[in-house]
C-alpha cells in the first residue's frame, strides 16, 4: 500500500488490499468504525432535533457525513476505505480554496471598514487618512529581495539561517532529511510551508503597522502552491525524495526568476459591492430582530410589573384578613353597657378582677356595716 500509485489510491483501487491486512488490524478498524458511526448518528440526531431542524434537508445532511457506509455499522470493509479516501481527497482539494475564500472575505471586510470610516471624516481628515493609507502601502513594499520559493537561493538561505550550516556545503538530500520533521520520507504541505518563514519575515513584521500577518499567511499558501505545481509530479500533495532531487536539477531551481509579492486586491469592485450589499442586508435583519426583541422585552417587563402589583394587592388582602381574624379571637376587656360586674376580692380585702353577678345581688365586700350580720 505504501508503494501504491496515487491514481490507484484516489480511484479506490487500493481499497481491495484491505482484505490482505492482519486480523488484529481489521479488529481495530471495526472498533474505530463503530465509534465513528455512533458519533455521526448522535451528531445527525442533534442537528435534526435543533430549533432549525424543519429547514434541514435530511438527505443533504447525511451526504455531509458520507465517508463511511452507515448501512453496515459493525465492520470496516473495503467500501469504507474507498469512501474515506475519496472524502479525504475531496477535502484536500477544497482546503486551499477555502483558505483563499476566507482571505478574500477578510480583505473585503477590511476595505469596507476603511471606507465606512472615511465617511465619518471631514474633507481634511479624509485626505490625511488617504495619504497615510498610501504611505503604509509604499512602506510595506520597501523590503529586501524575496527569493523564489523552492529555488536554490531560497533553500540555501534556510540551510544557513535556520539549520546553521555552511551554504557552500549545501546538499539537497541532507536538506530533505533535515526538514522531513515527522520522518515519513515525504515533505508534506505543513513541512513545506515552514520553509518559507525566513522569506516572509523579510516583508512582514507583526510590530509594523503596515504589515498584515493575515496577508502573510496567504502569501505562504501561494508559495506552497507554486512549489507543489512545479515539483509534485504525481499530484499527491506530497514531495518524496525523488521528486525533490529531480527539482534541484531544473533551471528554475538553479536560475530562478524573482518572486513578486502579491499587490493586487483578491477581489473585484463588483464583488466588493455585492459583499457590502450583503452586509447591509444582514445589518437590517439584525436591526429588525433587535427591535422585535426590545418590544418583547418591554412587554415582558409590563407583564412582570402587573404580576408584581397583583401579588402586592393579594398580600395586603391576606394581611387584612389575618388582622381581622386576630381581633375576633381576642376576649373583650370592657363590659358591655348594662351588665353588672362583681369585683374580685382577695383574702386581704383588696379589689381585683371582677365577674358579672346576677341582678339585685351586691358583692359581700361592699355591703354597708349596718346591713351586715352581727
One letter per element, helices H and strands E, the order comes to HHHHHHHEHHHEHHHEE
Major β-sheet annotation: 2 strands, antiparallel
Strand content: under 5%
- Name the helicity range: 55-70%
Distance between the termini: 142 Å
Number of helices: 13
Number of strands: 4
- Provide the structure class: mainly alpha
The backbone outline, from C-alpha atoms, is: flat
Q: Round the mean pLDDT to the nearest integer and report it.
A: 84
Estimated radius of gyration: 45 Å
Task: Produce a short descriptive summary.
With 374 residues, this protein is mostly helical.
Task: Explain what this protein looks like in three dimensions.
Helix 4 crosses helix 10 (213-231). The protein is flat and about 115 Å long. The strands form two sheets. A two-stranded antiparallel sheet has the order 1-2. It is built from 13 helices and four strands. The N and C termini lie far apart (142 Å). The chain is mainly alpha-helical and 374 residues long. The chain has a domain at 1-94. The longest helix is centred in the C-terminal third of the chain and has 61 residues, at 269-329. 59% of the residues lie in helices and 3% in strands.
Amino acid at each position: 500500500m505504501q508503494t501504491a500509485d496515487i491514481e490507484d489510491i484516489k480511484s479506490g483501487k487500493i481499497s481491495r488490499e484491505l482484505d490482505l491486512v492482519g486480523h488484529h488490524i481489521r479488529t481495530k478498524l471495526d472498533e474505530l468504525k463503530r465509534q465513528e458511526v455512533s458519533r455521526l448518528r448522535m451528531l445527525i440526531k442533534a442537528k435534526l432535533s435543533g430549533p432549525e431542524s424543519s429547514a434541514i434537508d435530511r438527505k443533504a445532511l447525511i451526504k455531509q457525513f458520507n465517508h463511511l457506509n452507515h448501512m453496515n455499522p459493525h465492520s470496516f470493509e473495503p467500501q469504507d476505505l474507498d469512501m474515506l479516501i475519496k472524502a479525504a481527497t475531496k477535502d484536500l482539494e477544497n482546503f486551499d480554496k477555502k483558505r483563499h475564500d476566507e482571505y478574500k472575505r477578510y480583505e473585503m471586510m477590511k476595505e469596507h471598514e476603511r471606507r465606512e470610516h472615511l465617511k465619518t471624516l471631514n474633507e481634511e481628515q479624509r485626505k490625511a487618512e488617504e495619504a497615510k493609507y498610501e504611505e503604509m502601502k509604499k512602506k510595506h513594499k520597501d523590503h529586501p529581495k524575496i527569493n523564489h520559493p523552492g529555488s536554490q537561493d531560497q533553500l540555501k538561505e534556510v540551510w544557513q539561517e535556520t539549520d546553521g550550516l555552511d551554504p557552500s556545503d549545501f546538499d539537497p538530500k541532507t536538506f530533505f532529511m533535515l526538514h522531513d520533521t515527522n520522518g515519513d520520507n515525504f515533505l508534506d504541505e505543513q513541512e513545506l510551508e515552514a520553509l518559507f518563514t525566513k522569506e516572509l519575515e523579510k516583508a512582514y513584521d507583526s510590530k509594523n503597522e503596515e504589515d498584515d500577518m493575515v496577508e502573510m499567511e496567504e502569501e505562504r499558501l501561494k508559495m506552497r502552491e507554486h512549489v507543489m505545481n512545479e515539483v509534485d509530479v504525481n499530484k499527491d500533495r506530497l514531495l518524496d525524495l525523488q521528486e525533490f532531487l529531480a527539482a534541484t536539477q531544473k533551471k528554475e531551481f538553479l536560475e530562478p526568476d524573482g518572486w513578486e509579492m502579491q499587490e493586487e486586491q483578491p477581489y473585484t469592485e463588483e464583488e466588493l459591492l455585492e459583499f457590502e450589499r450583503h452586509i447591509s442586508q444582514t445589518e437590517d435583519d439584525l436591526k429588525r430582530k433587535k427591535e422585535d426583541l426590545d418590544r418583547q422585552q418591554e412587554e415582558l417587563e409590563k407583564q412582570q410589573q402587573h404580576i408584581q402589583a397583583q401579588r402586592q394587592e393579594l398580600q395586603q388582602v391576606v394581611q387584612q384578613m389575618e388582622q381581622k381574624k386576630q381581633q375576633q379571637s381576642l376576649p373583650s376587656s370592657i363590659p358591655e353597657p348594662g351588665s353588672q360586674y362583681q369585683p374580685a376580692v382577695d383574702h386581704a380585702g383588696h379589689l381585683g378582677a371582677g365577674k358579672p353577678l346576677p341582678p339585685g345581688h351586691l358583692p359581700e365586700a361592699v355591703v354597708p356595716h349596718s346591713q351586715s350580720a352581727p
